[in-house]
Amino acid sequence: MNKKVRVRFAPSPTGGLHLGGVRTALFNYLFAKKNNGSFIIRIEDTDQTRFVEGAEKYIYDTLDWCGLKPDESPLLGGEFAPYKQSERKSLYKQYAEQLVNKGYAYYAFDTPEELEQKRKSFSNFQYNQHTRMSMKNSLVLGKEETEKLLANNTPYVIRIKMPENEEIIFTDMIRGEVHFNSSLVDDKVLLKADAMPTYHLAVVVDDYLMKISHSFRGEEWLPSAPIHILLWKYLFGLENMPQWAHLPLILKPDGNGKLSKRDGERLGFPVFAMDWKDPKTNEITIGFKERGFLPEAFINMLALLGWNDGTEQEIFSLSELIEKFSIERIHKAGAKFDYEKAKWYNHEWIKKLSAESLRNKVKNILQNTTNGFSDEYIDEVINLVKDRCTLISDFKQQTSFLFKAPENIAISAIQPKWNEQKKFFFIELINQLDKEIIWSAAELENLFKELASANQLKPGELMLPLRIMLVGDKFGPGVFDIASLIGNKETISRIKYVLSLL
Ligand code: GLU
After folding, report:
1. Residue 221 beta carbon below 6 angstroms from any ligand 1 atom
2. Global pTM?
3. Dihedral sign for Cα atoms in the order 480, 481, 482, 484
4. Residue 362 Cα, ligand 1 centroid: separation in angstroms?
5. Which amino acids are annotated catalytic?
6. Which residues of the chain, if any, have pLDDT below 70?
7. C-beta pairs of 59-64 under 8 Å, 24+ apart in sequence
8. Distance from Cα 217 to the centre of ligand 1, integer Å
9. HEC string of 457-469?
10. What pLDDT, in 10s, does the model give residues 85-98?
11. Ligand 1 centre from 176 Cα, in Å?
């Protein structure tokens, strides 16, 4: 029988979630759901020096916004709770000691000052097979001296003893066979002086205890893979090890290197999922959500950064992504981020979603502008303008004149070609509109054309003035649609007002 699929998204709560992080969560989620497995959130917070207030909540809020619901998490609990590594602290030490007892790791008593001194004296100093025998550790000191130091509560860390010149091989689900030489990896700390594990030990122990079957993580973790593989081998035997997939990087728009927060600032686009406020500086980094992206579009765009289903299809809902997802179609090469394309996805999703499902988001953007208007009216407004909106925030400009008369009128756009004949036409139009008939856009257009020809005017030369009267400027949807939506009375009052300015 196949092992049950259990995947984990294991972020460290150190700040806002970069879109690469959300994509990692998404691919884990898609794989889990595709295989009727479980999607687990584990908070990897063993590095207390990097603790950032609010970062953990931000992770939950982001996943929630994206619709990526976990099956087990620190908030939900589950069979393998706790899911936060700081709450599992007491679990890890025994594994580090096991490694020492088997000869795969050792106690190191070097003080931070001594290490600093080494780093100063030797550029690129590394604690590794070449240097370890000149340091203060159990390999050098011997059993007796080590036990004495331990009995005296001398602070220590436990380091892995990387083997010399050993070939470490594993099969990555995306990259195929990957080879490392153990000599190139230093003796990483596994257990710190405060008895907290480092990421390397905790990730292996927890993947084992939580019965993780597959793990998708960013390519930046590939250099850590040999350490994890050795730990798996030494502690648990390789057959229980999860299958790894190292996801390609998300690259800068020009393809030169990994996309960073600074690129977003430099080029004016978000890289975080949601607004992130740095608790120390109070600096806010804008998120996709607040910039006006729909979660459907954000997820869709992320999935297609490094994956496709082999057809030309680009628009996928989350459930379609689950259905179509396959590891074979994840690319090996990095995916360039393209903000224009991201906006394209959003535009497509705004067009695709019903007014009803956009309503709350639009209301949020418009705030009290919509007070006193029925949901039916708001839905009609949304339907009228949604094709013209790329971001949810565009609804503000595109709908303002549908809720109240424009404050600024671009009168100079009418004035040069204005004459008495046109004025007369608009007065007649007002008279017709005043007949308390509910006009449809098509009926209005007919009326408008008939009146124009009766006055020997071309409808074309009257459309722009009417638009300026109703909208205040030269944009917006069909002018008869606008008039029929705001109704006779409002149309009349806007025309009258502009006539009084001319
Ligand atoms: N805690 C790591 C991170 O912050 C997780 C790496 C992994 O998935 O193994 O991304």
Report:
1. yes
2. 0.94
3. positive
4. 36
5. 261
6. 1-2
7. 59/11, 59/13, 59/17, 61/274, 62/17, 62/22, 62/273, 62/274, 63/9, 63/25
8. 7
9. CCHHHHHHHHHHH
10. 999 999 999 999 99
11. 21
Question: Using one digit for the tens of pLDDT, what is the confidence trace for 124-147?
Answer: 999 999 999 999 999 999 999 999
CB within 8 A of 490, min separation 6: which ones? 405
Measuring CA to CA, which residue among 97, 467, 64 is closest to residue 273?
Answer: 64
Q: What's the per-residue H, E or C state across 363-395?
A: HHHHHHHHCCCCHHHHHHHHHHHHHHCCCCCHH
Where do we find the tokens 């995306």? 174
Alpha helical stretches, state H, 48-166: 55-66, 89-101, 112-121, 138-151
| Nearest atom, ligand 1, residue 14 CA | 4
> Measured from the CB, is residue 11 less than 6 Å from ligand 1?
yes
Read off φ and ψ for residue 67, nearest 5 degrees: 80, 20
Q: Could you tell me if the CB of 56 is within 6 A of ligand 1?
A: no
| Strand positions, DSSP E, 266-411 | 276-277, 284-285, 335-336
Q: Is 202 in the pocket of ligand 1 (CB under 6 A)?
A: no
If one counts every other C-beta atom within 10 angstroms of the C-beta of residue 370, the result is: 20
